[in-house]
Design a protein that fits this description.
By secondary structure, the protein is mostly beta strands. Among the domains are: 456-513, no CATH class; 530-732, lipopolysaccharide transport protein A fold. It has one helix and 47 strands. It has a 47-stranded antiparallel β-sheet that branches.
Length: 736
């Protein structure tokens, strides 16, 4: 027992020794494998970590995630190096990535501030690759809110995006609304889809990129440049489609397109611009108070209207104007540009509600201008000799040649007015005007129902042609012209508008009013209307000299003259007739009530009102009741037009043959035929005298007689024959 009690302590000591050895070994092993004790934190630092991350969620979706390669917390401030900030969008399928070398996070304000360089990449997909090059923002001094995810800086900012780059001073980004605001000095450059496409440069005072709406808003001013196209405006909105500019809307906008040899300017209170896939301008809507100015080498064309629709086509990387549609109080002014050695044409002003302007291929020159309804066209003089002209029509078409020179225009239901003294006015169903290389009017054609008025002169025809250089107006088809002196109708009338002379051709008929001046007779009365017909007629010296030819016939009442050619001098009161001349004069005082006529036929006639002598030549034939006279020439002495009888006396010369016929009631008719070289007839006395050479008389009842002179009085039918020594009277009396 006592032995056992001794062994027990030894055993305990042995066990304790064994346990001690094991413990020591275990402690040594633990000491060897234990982590190093951390360094004590410096004073004021509550925490420090490497590869630190902070997350904030909204429901089941992440909202904010901040990671840093190193983090140091001092109070409520966390300083981070190698920062990556994920700001998740509401659907958590995309996030905005912010990276910075150094940033400070304020736990109280929940704001992250980066003094140094910051890069922001917008709309990064959580899964899969990005659809294009993402929008990246480079700046410094950026402040972020972990609550809203908004980022802002007042320092210079650079942008990189799928179709270009840009910059501004100061920026603010709101991920909730996905709105990027560029505060000032905004500059953007949009690139086309291909390297060949021209870039578009945009400058502005302030800009807003609305990512959700694919829209950029610029204010308070905007400048846009692309190649030769320059635009400026106030508030401007740009719509994007897959990173390309598709539309731009601006207020108080104006634009300029410059190409070789041409400049186009346009503007309005509001401009709406559409671009094609290569960012070429394809359409511009300008309204209201819209204007367009196209300046070429020879002409400056200005268009003003309530609205302008401008169509463009892409040619050699440029947007060239192809069509202009103007509506609402439209006015198109084509003002010539003065050039040395070239006469300046008129300024043209076209007015209508709707006007379309089409350009030639290449967009540098106008092809035609047309109205979609009634319009007016004014030609305003630029030289003293140019009159002011005006045209009104239901429709107007203007066609241009090279260098925007007008070649011709057309209008329907047109009226024209030329400001002269007096004004010249025309109207017709259709009008065509042609111009020379200097845009000067050369020819004007008016078709169907032409009407003309110039002071007291009137004209009408189916068609009229005006030749500017010659100042000739030609009327065709049922042509007619009139003034206070008379009227002319013909198939064609050509009028010299400078002199007033005219030519009438084909079925000519005229009516001349009495002059009421100077002497007159049955041949040319100043108291009666004169009418005439011919195949051709000319009038010169202000209607003072009139020439008829081709079956010419003129008459005043019952008095008439016919001939192949007929000339009347109104001022000198002289008339000439040539070729198959025939005249007829009536006696007013015929006792029987039946008009008594004196008719004369001859080859030629000359008459003067001053002498009232009608001189017939070329073989003549005179007829009066009971008397006919044939001779080589005849002088008829006419009475004043107010006299009851037209013929005073007549002298015939050369191979005179006189036939006197006597008719008495209850007695047989008989005649006397006289031959002589000279004969005189006195109408008032009804006396015939034959003399000159040997006078021979053959009386159908009393026989034949010869002598030197015969006198016959028709009133009492008395006959006296005289002779001389060499030619004694001889009479042969027939047997009963």
């Amino acid at each position: 027992m006592r032995r056992l009690r001794w062994l027990l302590p030894v055993a305990i000591i042995a066990i304790l020794g064994t346990v001690g050895v094991v413990y020591v070994r275990q402690m040594a092993l633990q000491s060897q494998n234990a982590p190093q004790r951390p360094t004590l934190l410096s004073d004021g630092i509550q925490g420090e970590a490497q590869d630190w991350c902070y997350e904030q969620s909204q429901g089941a979706n992440p909202k904010v995630e901040i990671c840093a390669s190193r983090m140091v917390r001092t109070g409520e401030k966390i300083e981070m190096q190698g920062v990556k900030l994920h700001l998740f969008h509401e659907n958590a399928t995309e996030y905005d990535l912010v990276t910075s070398d150094f940033a400070q996070f304020d736990l109280t304000e929940r704001n992250l501030f980066s003094q140094g360089n910051v890069e922001i990449t917008l709309a990064v997909p959580v899964e899969g690759p990005a659809p294009g090059r993402l929008l990246k923002i480079h700046s410094s001094g950026v402040e972020f809110s972990s609550e809203t995810g908004e980022a802002a800086t007042t320092r210079p900012v650079r942008f990189e995006f799928d179709r270009g780059s840009g910059s501004s001073v100061g920026a603010h980004y709101n991920p909730a609304t996905r709105e990027l605001r560029m505060d000032s000095q905004v500059w953007l450059e949009w690139l086309g889809k291909t390297p060949e496409a021209q870039a578009m440069h945009i400058e502005s005072g302030e800009a807003f990129y609305l990512e959700n709406q694919s829209k950029v808003v610029f204010k308070p001013w905007t400048k846009l440049t692309r190649g030769g196209l320059h635009m400026e405006g106030a508030w401007t909105e740009v719509l994007l489609e897959n990173g390309d500019i598709k539309r731009a809307d601006t207020n108080d906008g104006r634009g300029t397109q410059v190409s070789p040899g041409k400049k186009v300017e346009f503007g309005a209170k509001s401009l709406h611009i559409l671009f094609d896939e290569h960012m070429n301008v394809k359409y511009v809507l300008a309204e209201p108070q819209a204007s367009l100015i196209s300046t070429a080498a020879t002409t400056r064309t200005t268009v003003t209207a309530d609205r302008l629709d401008l169509d463009f086509a892409a040619v050699n990387k440029e947007s060239l104007l192809t069509k202009v549609s103007a509506s609402g109080k439209t006015e198109v002014t084509a003002e010539p540009i003065a050039r040395p050695g070239v006469l300046t044409p008129e300024t043209r002003v076209l007015k209508s509600e709707v006007v379309h302007m089409l350009m030639r291929p290449g967009g540098e020159e106008i092809d035609r201008v047309e109205t979609a309804g009634p319009g007016t066209l004014d030609f305003l003089p630029n030289r003293p000799e140019q009159p002011k002209r005006n045209l009104k029509g239901d429709m107007i078409w203007i066609y241009y040649g090279p260098e925007n020179r007008i070649e011709h225009f057309r209008s329907t239901n047109a009226t024209t007015r030329t400001e002269m003294k007096p004004p010249r006015v025309t109207e017709s169903k259709e009008i065509l005007a042609y111009f020379d290389a200097q845009s000067t009017l050369t020819r004007l054609e008016q078709n169907t129902d032409f009407r003309y008025e110039e002071g007291d002169r009137r004209a009408n025809a189916r068609k009229a042609t005006f030749e500017q250089v010659k100042d000739l107006l030609t009327l065709d088809g049922a042509a007619s012209t009139s003034d206070p002196t008379g009227r002319v109708n013909a198939d064609r009338i050509t009028l010299d508008q400078k002199s007033g002379d005219y030519l009438a051709e084909g079925n000519v008929s005229t009516t001349r009013q009495p002059s009421r001046k100077g002497g007159s007779s049955a041949m040319l009365s100043s108291q009666e209307i004169m009418q005439a017909t011919a195949k051709r007629m000319t009038s010169t010296e202000k209607n003072q000299k009139i020439h008829y030819e081709g079956d010419a016939r003129a008459w005043q009442g019952a008095n008439r003259v016919t001939a192949d050619r007929l000339d009347i001098d109104q001022e000198k009161h002289v008339m000439e007739a040539h070729g198959k001349v025939e005249t007829q004069f009536v006696d007013k005082s015929a006792k029987s009530g039946v008009p008594a006529f004196t008719s004369v036929r001859a080859q030629d006639l000359e008459y003067s009102t001053e002498t009232r002598i009608a001189h017939y030549t070329g073989g003549t034939h005179l007829e009066r009741p009971g008397l006919t006279v044939n001779s080589k020439e005849l002088r008829a002495f006419l009475k004043d037009a107010t006299s009851d009888t037209s013929l005073d006396k007549a002298f015939a010369d050369g191979a005179v043959r006189t036939v006197m016929v006597t008719t008495e009631p209850g007695k047989p008719k008989y005649s006397r035929t006289g031959l002589s070289e000279h004969a005189e007839y006195y109408a008032g006395e009804q006396k015939v005298i034959l003399n000159g050479g040997l006078v021979k008389v053959d009386d159908s009842v009393k026989g034949k007689s010869e002598g030197t002179e015969l006198t016959w009085l028709a009133k009492d039918d008395s006959l006296r024959m005289d002779g001389n020594k060499s030619n004694q009277v001889r009479t042969v009396i027939p047997k009963k």
